[in-house]
Amino acid sequence: MAQQQDSAKQDLDARDEGVHAVNQEFRRYEQVNKSQTYGLSENQQVDEFDENYQIRVCDMADYFHGGEAGKVRFAQALGQGMEDIGFTILVNHGIDPQLFEQTDKAVRRFFETIPMSARQPYLAQRHGSVNQGYFPIKETTIIHPDLVEGWVFCRRAFNLDQKPDFSASQFWPEPEYEPLFRQLIQAEAQLILPIMQSILRYLNVDIHHYDDALTATNFGFRLNYYPALNEQQQQSSGGRMLGHEDVDLFTFLPAPKEDGLQALHRKTQKWVRLKAPPGSIIINTGDYMQRITNDRLPSTTHRVAQPANASQAQRARVSFPMAVYVWEDEILEVLPGLGEPKYPPIRAETFHTRITSKYYGDDYSND
Hints:
Elements: H1 2-17, E1 57-59, H2 60-65, H3 67-84, E2 87-91, H4 97-113, H5 116-119, E3 125-127, E4 130-135, E5 149-154, H6 177-189, H7 192-202, E6 219-226, H8 231-235, E7 241-244, E8 250-254, E9 261-265, E10 270-273, E11 281-285, H9 287-292, E12 302-304, E13 317-319, E14 322-324, E15 331-332, E16 346-347, H10 348-360
Parallel strand pairs: 1-2
Antiparallel strand pairs: 2-11, 3-4, 4-5, 5-6, 6-13, 6-14, 7-12, 8-11, 8-14, 9-10, 9-12, 15-16
């Protein structure tokens, strides 16, 4: 028992020190080129900001209603934005903004009403590639004390495939939330192929190259609840979520109500504060995408900093991103026509767990 307590204390000490760490301390885990150096937390003495940079807004009305020429316009806008900074903003995507509003309220209710005792049986565990379940505050990683609670649900937590043995209580402390959140999952899933086909069109690759792999594919739907910050937390150097890159193809993030999201522009090494209009969807590229595009589309560094407006720190912030994966047995390999491959083919699960071992420990990898 004493050894376990000592080990837990060492983990907490290491996590607290993470506010002073830089990403290159963990480069041995990376599976794509990430030459940029940044602190895991915002550092106002070191970080530079580009206050004039505008994240590209991509109008999906072009894709849905503009015919073939519209699809080409949308692909160019999306691809250019992703190639430059890896973030774009989707408007006219066809999802009712009221669904985002309902989900926002449900996430707040989820974390504010479910007692800790009911969460304990659902503490995060690895299933396939992904750590799924509940992450307490300051325990979303072992390298940084994130000021956020998280809960990750993958495809298996939703009754999307109508399996007769499905049991919502296996994944949900209160099963009535499953159909509620499933509405958003199903709506966003309709955008997966349009987005991937548009990326491939931009890269001059067969637009149907990933159709089979992304039909009924896996995903990570993450509920993030950032509690209101007390005075001590506001004065600390720790951000609300560490600087990181997503381990996926791309992520859908309905525009959060509260500020804090920042992206690092690799070309300038300056941070950009993201401000997306209500009802829009922020989309960013991840490690899978950088790997298969031979570094053409970068996996984008981002973080959630404490809000610049101190009054916003007095209320909780929520977000609910959906990370788009491929199944574990899929092979990630550089797409045709993108030059001499910098990376050999690799099984998705191996790729994924090698990277995320930096967050969960060396024994997380399936190597």
